[in-house]
Design goal:
The structure is a homodimer of 411-residue chains. Chain A is of the alpha/beta class and 411 residues long. Chain A is built from 14 helices and 14 strands. Chains A, B: Pathway: Carbohydrate degradation; glycolysis; pyruvate from D-glyceraldehyde 3-phosphate: step 3/5.
Chain lengths: 411, 411
C-alpha cells in the first residue's frame, strides 16, 4: 500500500462575483476530481488552524506532521535546500538577490537587470569566502534561478535574529543589518552580514561577467543582498518519523527544499516551471513512475500554477489551470493499492492576490475509507463530507493509520 | 471593512419536552436571524473546547483570542475593570458583598438587606485604607450595583492563591481566609484579607448610613466579604494584538470588564439592564452609531437577557427575549461593509439553569464568505453549515483574515 499527498498550491479561493459568486474550483470542469470526491471521503482542512494565513512552506511543514511554530524561522533554509545545498541543523540561511549598486553605494536595480546568465561564475567567486575577523565561519553561496541566490553561514555562535540587508526599494543603499535581540550571537551574525555585503561589492564590481554586462549596457550583478533569514531546524527525517521511504515531486525551490530538509528523495521533472505553463504531462509521467517504483511508499506532490494565477489575480487562467490539473488526477487515480489524498496548501483568492486563512477541500481515496455523499470537489461541497473539518497536522496521522504504518498509543 | 461579533449571552439550549423537544431558539420566531443564516456561513462553535462549561468571562476571553487557561484566574479583575477601576497587571482583585454582621460576629444577611443606596459613601470610608502592618499595600475599594463591591490590592508580594471570606450561608461568621499554597505571598495576602474584613466591620458598624438603616429597620452594610479572587493578567491590548480600534457594547460589569482590560472603548447604553427587561432599542441605536463611527473597526456586543432567563429557568421568557433580539439583528444586517458574526458565549439550558458545555450556533456574514445551505439559525441546523465545528479561539483569526488584517505565517 502506497500513499500520495498531492497538493495543488493555492487552489482554494473565495466566491467571485464574475463567476456568479462561485470559486474557480467550483466553475472549473473537473470530472476526475469530482469522481475522486465521489469515491473518496471529503472534508475541509485548515493547513495550520482556522483563519491562520499559511505560507506554502509552513503549510507543507504542517501537513507533513511537523509543527511550523517550532521548526520554521524563515524561508532561507528551505530555499537553500531546494537548490541542492546540504544544509545542516544550526546553519543560518538567507535568500539573496544579485543587485546593482552604483559608485555612491546606492542600489539602482534590486534584480541586476534580471540577470539570467553568468550567475554561476559570479557565485563561484563568493562561495567559500573567508571574511576577515570571522575566519571560523564557513560561507556557502550558490546561485538560484535568475537574479536569486542563497547564502548559508555555518559555524559557532550564529543567530537567526538579524534583519534584512535588502532595502526593498531602489534608490537606497543596502540596509544595515542589525541584531534583533541582545545576544552576542545576533550581534556577530549582523556584523558578518554587513561585512559580507560590502565584500560582495568589492569582489564583484570588476568581475569579468559584470564588466561584460556593463559593456553590453546591462546592469551588473555587483552586490549581494541577503534577506529571509532562517535557522536550519533540527528535524526528525520524514522516513524515520513514519517508517516510509519518501519521494518529493515539486516544482519550486521552496517545496523542493522542504522535501530535501525532511530527507525525501527529490525527483526533478523536466519542464516543471512552477507556473501555469508547466509541463503537466511530464509531471504526470514522473508521478506514475515514482508510484511504480517499489523504493517509494510515500510521494509528496506539489503543483504550483494555481497559486501563481491567484497571486497574479488571473481568474480565467486559474480556472483553466485547475482543469489541466484534472487530467493529472485521472492518471493518478489509475494507480493501484494507493491511498491518494488530494488537497491544497492554502487559498490564494483572485480577490486578495495573496494567501488567506480559508480552509481548503480535501479528499482521501483508498480501499478502506468511508465513502460519503459528496460528489464534487470544491471548497463548498467538501464541507458536507465525512471528514468534517480537520487540520493539516492530522493528515499524516490519518494516512499512516490507513497504511497501517503507525503505532498504537496505549493498550 | 468592519467587524462585529455579537454574542447573545446564554442563548444556546437543549431540547425541551414542553417545546416538542425543540430548543427555545428553534421555536422562537426569528426571521432576521434565519435570513442571516441564509446569506452567511454557519457552524457550531465550542467556546473553549467540546464539553467544557465556559463562563461568560472565559468564553469571551477565548472568543477574543486570549487563552483563558493562561489569563483567567478569577472573576475579580474583570468585575473591578467593569465598574471603571483602572486595574493593572499584578493587582489582586475580589468581588465583595456588603453584608450584615451581628454583635456576635455572625453574618445574618449576606446582602445587607439588598442595600441600594448609600454604598458609595460607605465605600468611600474604606477606599484608600491603610492596614496596620501592611502599609505598603494600596487598597482600592469601590461599590458596584446593589450590595456588590470590588476590592483591589496593589503592591509587592501578593498572591491570588487565597480562599474566600464569604461563608456562602447566613448564620456563620466570615470565613477565615487561608493561603492555598505554601508561598509567603499567599500567606501575606490571606493575612491582609482577614485584617481587611475585621477592619471593615470596625469602620462601618457606626457609619452614618448604617445608623440610619438600623433606625429605619433595615440591615446595615457593616462588613465587607471578599470572594472571586483573581490576579489581573498581563494582557496584550486587543488593538495592539489585531491592529484594529475596538469598542465594546455590553450590559454587565463582567463583560464590560473584559472590554476594559483588553483596552476597548466602553460604550454605555442607557437602560441596558442585562435582564430581559433591557432596552434593546437603545442597544440597537448604540450599535448602529458605533458602526458608523470611523474610529471603530471592531465592535464586541453582548446582550445578556437570554442567559438570565436560562439561569431562572424561564422558558417562555427566553423564547420571547430571543424574538426581541431578532429585531436588533435586522438593524445590524443593514450596516454596509461589514463582517458580522452572530453567536452565543455558551448555552444556559432551561433544564439545567446554569451554563453547559454544548456547542453554540454561529453565523459569519460578509462579502467573501462561502454561503452554505443553512437557512435557519439554531443549535441543530447550524451543525450542517460550511464552517462545520470551530472553537471560540478560531473566531478572531477567521475574522481578521476576512478583514485582511492578519499577517501571513511563512512564504
Amino acid at each position: 500500500m502506497k500513499g500520495i499527498i498531492m497538493i495543488i498550491d493555492g487552489m482554494g479561493d473565495r466566491p467571485i462575483k464574475d463567476l456568479g459568486y462561485k470559486t474557480p474550483l467550483e466553475v472549473a470542469n473537473t470530472p476526475n476530481m469530482d469522481k475522486l470526491a465521489e469515491i473518496g471521503i471529503n472534508g475541509i482542512m485548515d493547513p495550520i488552524s482556522p483563519g491562520i494565513r499559511a505560507g506554502s512552506d509552513t503549510s507543507h511543514i504542517s501537513i507533513l506532521g511537523y509543527d511550523p511554530y517550532e521548526v520554521y524561522t524563515g524561508r532561507g533554509p528551505f530555499e537553500a535546500a531546494g537548490i541542492g545545498l546540504d544544509v545542516i541543523a544550526g546553519d543560518i540561511a538567507f535568500r539573496c538577490n544579485f543587485s546593482t549598486q552604483d559608485e555612491n553605494g546606492i542600489i539602482v536595480d534590486r534584480r541586476a537587470g534580471r540577470i539570467r546568465k553568468g550567475t554561476e561564475e559570479i557565485a563561484g567567486s563568493i562561495n567559500s569566502l573567508k571574511l576577515e575577523g570571522f575566519e571560523d565561519i564557513e560561507i556557502i553561496f550558490k546561485e538560484s534561478t535568475g537574479h536569486r541566490a542563497v547564502l548559508v553561514l555555518r559555524g559557532a555562535g550564529l543567530s537567526d535574529k538579524v534583519s534584512d540587508a535588502d532595502p526593498k526599494h531602489e534608490g537606497k543603499p543596502p540596509k544595515e543589518v542589525v541584531p534583533l535581540d541582545d545576544s552576542p550571537e545576533a550581534a556577530k551574525t549582523a556584523a558578518i552580514l554587513n561585512k559580507f555585503v560590502k565584500t560582495s561589492y568589492d569582489l564583484l564590481k570588476d568581475h569579468p561577467v559584470n564588466l561584460k554586462r556593463i559593456n553590453d549596457g546591462e546592469n551588473p550583478a555587483n552586490v549581494v543582498l541577503p534577506r529571509g533569514v532562517g535557522a536550519v531546524p533540527h528535524i526528525v527525517p520524514f522516513g524515520e518519523k513514519y517508517g516510509v521511504k519518501a519521494a518529493c515531486i515539486a516544482e519550486t525551490g521552496l517545496i523542493k527544499g522542504i522535501g530535501k530538509i525532511t530527507g525525501m528523495d527529490l525527483i526533478d521533472v523536466e519542464g516543471a516551471t512552477g507556473g501555469i505553463d508547466t509541463n503537466l504531462e511530464n509531471m504526470t509521467a514522473s508521478i506514475v513512475e515514482a508510484a511504480k517504483n517499489d523504493d517509494y511508499e510515500f510521494i509528496l506532490i506539489n503543483i504550483d500554477g494555481a497559486d501563481e494565477a491567484g497571486h497574479d489575480g488571473q481568474m480565467e487562467e486559474k480556472v483553466k489551470f485547475i482543469e489541466k490539473v484534472d487530467a493529472v488526477i485521472e492518471e493518478v487515480m489509475k494507480i493501484d493499492d494507493l491511498y491518494f489524498i488530494l488537497t491544497a496548501d492554502h487559498s490564494t483568492p483572485i480577490s486578495v492576490m495573496d494567501h488567506t486563512g480559508d480552509p481548503v477541500p480535501i479528499i482521501i481515496k483508498g480501499p478502506e475509507v468511508k465513502v460519503d455523499n459528496v460528489n464534487s470537489f470544491n471548497e463548498r461541497a467538501a464541507a458536507y463530507g465525512g471528514l468534517c473539518r480537520i487540520r493539516g497536522s492530522d493528515i499524516m496521522n490519518i494516512l499512516m493509520d490507513f497504511m497501517n504504518k503507525s503505532e498504537k498509543f496505549g493498550a
